[in-house]
């Protein structure tokens, strides 16, 4: 392959990459549901109906354990709670690998 053919091939490859990027741009504006789970608990309806201000619900996680970050109900990462400008946030400490995410699809 001579230099002219190589340059044409590279130009075509660059064009395909650019077209692919343009085709994916619409994804950047899709809304996602992001939630952070502190823990879970199961309670009876009768106990729920009797709850008042000040009641405590025991969760299945220990204090200091990482919080779970879900995007569209899929576990994406774990992290710790932080306070920034009087608002709560989450600092990611462990991002779930793509392999693990695929395994949880089934």
TrEMBL record:
Please report the stretch or stretches of sequence annotated as the Flagellar motor switch protein FliN-like C-terminal domain: 27-96
Membrane topology annotation: Peripheral membrane protein
Give the record's keywords alphabetically: Cell membrane, Chemotaxis, Flagellar rotation, Membrane
The main place the protein resides is membrane
Q: Does the keyword Hydrolase apply?
A: no
* Protein's cellular compartments: Cell membrane
The family assignment reads: Belongs to the FliN/MopA/SpaO family.
Q: What is this protein called?
A: Flagellar motor switch protein FliN
């Amino acid at each position: 392959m001579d230099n002219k053919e190589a340059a044409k091939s590279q130009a075509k490859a660059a064009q395909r990459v650019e077209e692919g990027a343009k085709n994916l741009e619409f994804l950047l504006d899709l809304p996602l549901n992001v939630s952070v789970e502190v823990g879970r608990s199961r309670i009876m309806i009768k106990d729920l109906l009797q709850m008042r201000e000040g009641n405590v619900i025991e969760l299945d996680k220990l204090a200091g354990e990482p919080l779970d970050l879900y995007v569209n109900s899929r576990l994406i990462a774990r992290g710790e709670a932080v306070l920034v400008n009087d608002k709560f946030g989450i600092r990611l400490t462990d991002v779930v690998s793509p392999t693990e995410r695929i395994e949880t699809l089934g």
